[in-house]
User: Which sequence fits this backbone?
């Protein structure tokens, strides 16, 4: 498989009230699975609020890493909202651990579907548009990374 690397490092443009900064990179091995990396730095109020470039596909996994200036509290909050204002993480990013530089947390976003026979399935979240990243409770100028895997 040919490695297609699209390193689009840019400041994502958000609303007039955008906080913090994000560098966005994308890579894909076969154009079916894409890895989108959002490396963020919080503002002096300990927040990040920016919008990504368009994201398309099923979200299969989201990973959270701490930066070299790791968040100061025990946990911090992350939301990824679609163009309709729906958190595609379904609240699973509300308490990301910030315990060590090398530690990573991950979630598998999805919608829990309960069938009439009592069984449950996790249906994948499908996205098609820009995502608004919001990070809160990390401390002044702290850093981290959100990695989104789509297919």
Assistant:
């Amino acid at each position: 498989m040919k490695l297609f690397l699209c390193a689009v490092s840019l400041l994502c443009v958000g609303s007039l009230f955008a906080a913090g900064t994000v560098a966005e990179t994308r890579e894909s091995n076969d154009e079916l699975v894409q890895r989108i990396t959002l490396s963020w730095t919080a503002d002096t109020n300990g927040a990040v609020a920016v919008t990504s470039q368009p994201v398309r596909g099923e979200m299969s996994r989201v990973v959270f890493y701490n930066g070299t200036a790791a968040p100061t509290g025990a946990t911090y909050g992350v939301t990824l909202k679609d163009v309709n204002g729906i958190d595609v993480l379904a609240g699973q990013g509300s308490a990301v651990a910030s315990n060590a530089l090398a530690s990573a947390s991950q979630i598998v976003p999805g919608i829990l579907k309960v069938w009439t026979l009592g069984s449950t399935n996790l249906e994948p979240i499908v996205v098609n548009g820009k995502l608004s990243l919001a990070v809160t409770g990390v401390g002044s100028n702290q850093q981290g990374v959100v990695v989104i895997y789509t297919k």
